[in-house]
Amino acid sequence: MEDLAEYHGSISKRQAEEILNHAGRDGSYLIRDSMSSAGSYCVCVLCAGWIYTYRVFKKKDGLWTIEVAPGMKERLFRKVSNLIAAFKIPDQGISAPLLYPPVIDHYGNYTHEKKRT
To answer: Of 84, 75, 78, whose CA–CA distance to 62 is shortest?
Structure first.
């Protein structure tokens, strides 16, 4: 998980909301540790001024899944990066496609550009 630029670690729900509201673009998203379910993560996405949170977790068989809207079929992925790629497409059972991961640049500012090493 640490290899993903959109992963922000153990930030709070409020911190995630602040980052995404500052980003201000529908489809801005980040991944953070779940505060209520150990070993799970949350994908937080901005859509129409609201922050929606979806739990991402690894199943017993080692595959990753995300909670989606009722009636949508569960999808399984070998890697979280594959899950993120699949949900960049609209109408996948979440509020908005995952398009713009705000990341921290080398000055400590949030941007939609990937980190430069």
So the answer is: 78
- Residue 5: inside a domain: no
Smallest CA-to-CA distance from 19 within 3, 36, 32, 34 is with 32
What is the residue whose two structure tokens read 């909301």? 17
Q: Is 17 helix (H, G, I), strand (E, B) or coil?
A: helix
> Tens of pLDDT along 51-100?
999 999 999 999 999 998 888 888 999 999 999 999 999 999 899 999 99
Region for residue 39 given its phi and psi (left: phi exceeds 0; alpha: psi -120 to 50; beta: otherwise): left
Which CATH number do you get for residue 29?
A: 3.30.505.10
CA distance 12 to 22: 15
Read off the tokens for 61.
């068989």
Give the domain range for residue 67.
13-111
Q: How far apart are CA 23 and CA 112, in angstroms?
A: 8
Q: Would the pTM of this model clear 0.90, i.e. be above it?
A: no
Enclosing H/E stretch for 21: helix 13-23
Domain count, the chain: 1
